[in-house]
Amino acid sequence: MQNYLNHLKQINTNLRKEISQRLGEDLDGLDIDELRGLEQNMDEALKEVRERKYHLISTQTETYKKKLKSAQEGQRKLLQDLVIKDEESAYGFADDGLSSSEGALVLANGGSQLYAIRVQPNQPNLQGISYRSYDLRLA
Prior knowledge:
By secondary structure, the chain is an alpha+beta fold. 56% of the residues lie in helices and 14% in strands.
């Protein structure tokens, strides 16, 4: 058990030393071959990080392309449904040319029945008005 603990401590010490060397610390005691090995390790790590990053970006790009294609297909289907419903619709909107707020909803069969809808934009907003309660009692 004690041997195993010492072995783990040695591994931990070596890893801490390697991390500090990769950060540019404790390079004074290294000879030229160790510096070259450290440089190669860092180049390999950098290459691996770039490959992972490129893979992640390309995967995300493909995913977003699929989502965009799906959204465009959904929009196309909705537009087709809208056109079909417009063609099959029994109602249409008629404008008599007076103003944009004066129009009529008419039946598409020639307008035999006319339902006029007039919008009056100058009505006050009644939501903010409160009514006083009067003290009414039966005598």
